[in-house]
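In practice, a research group might receive sequence data for several interacting partners and want a quick structural hypothesis before committing to experiments. The following worked case mirrors that situation: the sequences arrive first, and a predicted assembly follows.
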Amino acid sequence: MPSPLSNIDLVEKIKDALKDRFAIDVTKVDENSRLRDLGVDSLHVLEIMLDMESELGIKLEDLSVPPNPSLGEVAAAIERNMAPSV
Amino acid sequence: MNQQQDVVITGMGLVSPIGLDTAELISALKNGRSGIHLWQSSKLSKKYPAGRVLRDFSDEFSKLDLPYLDRCTQMAVLAARQAITGAGLNDLSEYQQRAGLYYGTVRGSAELEEIWFEKYLVEHAQSARPYTVFAIMHNAGAAQISIRHQILGPVMTHNTACTSSGTAIGDAYRAIRDGYLDVAIAGGADSPLTTSTFVAWDGSRALATPDTQDVGHSCKPFSKNRTGLVIGEGAAFIVLESATHARKRGATCLATLSGYGIASDGYHIGSPKADGQVIAMAAALKDAGIQPAAIDYFNAHATATRGGDTVEANAIKLAFGEAAEALPVSSTKSVHGHLLGAASVMELIITIVAMNESFLPATTNLDELDPDCNLNHVANIPIFDRLIEHAMSFSSGLGGTNVALVVSKYRETPSTHQAVPV
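A structural hypothesis for the assembly, expressed as C-alpha cells:
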C-alpha cells in the first residue's frame, strides 16, 4: 500500500492535473474552488481521478464525488479510497 | 390553408479540401485548384488519392473541449459556426423550438473509434477515456453544434450514405416551408480518412488509383479513363430561413432554395438505378415550379465510378428530355473528392457561389469523354460570365436514396408557393 498523501498534497496534485491536462490557470485555485467554475465537468473529474490511480499506483474502488465538487472534496474522495480498510 | 413559406439561404460555411471559406472556394473553382492529395497509412501498402483538408484544427478548441471532439466534429462545429455567424446569428435560444439543426454524416467519428480499437488490440486497453463514447456517437456533431448555438428545436442526424446532408437540407427546407420552423441549420461532416474506411472501400474496388502524373488529377468523372471515386473529408453548412423572417431581420439572402425532390431506387444496395434518380430530379423541378429548360447549371453527383456516372448521365437525359442537350453539367468532385456526409451540402454551396458569381464550375480531368456519359459537359475549365437563374444539385447514395435540390437567384418578390390542397 503506498504511503497515504495528505489532503493538501492531493489538492496540489489535482491542480497539477488541471494545469497539465486541461491548460487551466491554477494560480488562484485552492481547495475551495469549485471545478464547474473552472469549466471542468464530471467526466473531466473522472479522468483526473483515473490519472491519480496511475500516478499513485492505487485502485479507486469508489469514484463517487458530490455534485459540483470543490478540489478539496475530490481530494477527500481519493483519500477515502487510500485509507486502509478495516 | 396556410400559404407555404419561401425558403432562403442566408449563411454558408465550409471546411473543405478546396477552401476554408466561400472566398477560398470560389478562387479554387475559378482556378481549377485541386484539393486531392496522396493519403497513406503505415498499416497499408497502397497509397490512395484523397480530398484532404491540410490543417489540424485542435488549436481552435480548449483542452477541456478537445476530448469530446474528434476531427469530424471539430470540422462540423467550425463550418456551422462560420455559416451561423455569417448569417448574422449566433445564439438561437430566442427561437426556442422554432430553430432546428439537420446534420448528415456517413462515418461520423470513425477515426476516434479506430484509435481506441487499436489501443485494445495493441495495448489490451480494457477501457477508453471517459469522454470517448460521447465523441464517437454519430450525432456528436449535431449535438455539439446545438449546444454551442442553443438550437432548441429538432436536432436531427441523417445517415443516408452520400445523400446524408442532402436529405438533411431537404427536411430542413420542408420544416421551414411548412411553417414549423423560422430558422434551420443544415449540412454535414465526415472525416473518413482512416485505415478502416480505405480497407472497406478498397474491398469494393470502387476507389480511384493515383494519377501517375499528378495525384491532384486522380478523380475523373465522366471520363473514359476514370478509375473510381476519391474519398474526401470536410464539413459544410447552410442557414435556411423563411423569406419573411429573413427580410424582417434584414438578413442578406444568398439564394432561394426553391425545390427538393427525393426518391429511392428500391433496387440494389450498391448499384444505382436511373428510375429513382429521374423521379427525384423531376420532383425537385415540380416543387420549384419550373420547366427543365429553366435550369442553367446542373451539379452532378458523378463520383467517377464506372457504373455510377453512366447511370446518372442517362437519368439526366431522361429527366430533362430535350433540355438535356443544352444543360451545362459538371461534377466538382474532380477537385474536392467525395465528402460523403458533407457531399450534398458542399456541392449545393458550390452551386450557389457559381450562381452568385455567374460562372459554371468545371469537371476537371475530362480530356477524353466516355461516350456513354455524353452530356453538355463543362469540361476542364470553368465558363465565365454565364447567368444562372436556377440550378440543380443532385446526389445519389449507396442503398438507393436520391436527392435533387433546386436553388434560384434570390428575388425580393415572393413566389406564389401555395400548399397543395388535400
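Before designing any experiment, note the following. The first strand of chain B starts at residue 7 and ends at 15. The radius of gyration of chain B is 20 Å.
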